Amino acid sequence: MTISLGIQHAFSGFAVNDLEVAAGFYGDTLGIEVRDDSDRGMLRLMLPGGAEVIVYLKPDHVPAVFTILNFVVADIDVAVDELTERGVEFLRYEQFAEQDHKGIQRGGDPEIAWFTDPAGNILSVLQNA
After folding, report:
1. What is the per-residue pLDDT across 41-97, written as a single tens digit (0 to 9) for each?
2. Among positive and negative, which fits the CA dihedral 126, 75, 78, 28?
């Protein structure tokens, strides 16, 4: 059975506790196009491939305990090195014994490395085999 809701567009969103800091991180550190919609209490991230994600202000924000946004990259080593140079620190998880000295989980598909935004939300860069 097919349900017709008339959906014309869909997008995801997540909260941060400071829009200005988020705009700097996503725009300057990650190099994503950020559209300022702060008069409405949000930003719009225009992701490669055409997806849009809203980032909204929530002063009592509590970071998610799971990855909220994944960035597929051509070369994970280059991406991790560039982000590290920009001050990003990569997370280490005890359950992933195969994380190397850079924080990259090796030996699987995809290879992946996790980090947080300034609000504590978990993000990743990953490279498909």
Report:
1. 899 999 998 999 999 999 999 999 999 999 999 999 999 999 999 999 999 988 776
2. negative
Domains delineated in the chain: 12-127 (3.10.180.10)
Predicted TM-score (pTM) of the model is 0.90
Locate 96 and state its tokens.
């992933």
Torsion of CA 55, 59, 64, 68, to 10 degrees: 10
Q: Are strands 67-72 and 42-46 parallel, antiparallel or unpaired?
A: unpaired
Tell me how crowded residue 76 is: count the other CB atoms within 10 A of its CB: 22
Cα–Cα distance measured from residue 111 to residue 9, given in angstroms and rounded to the nearest whole number: 31
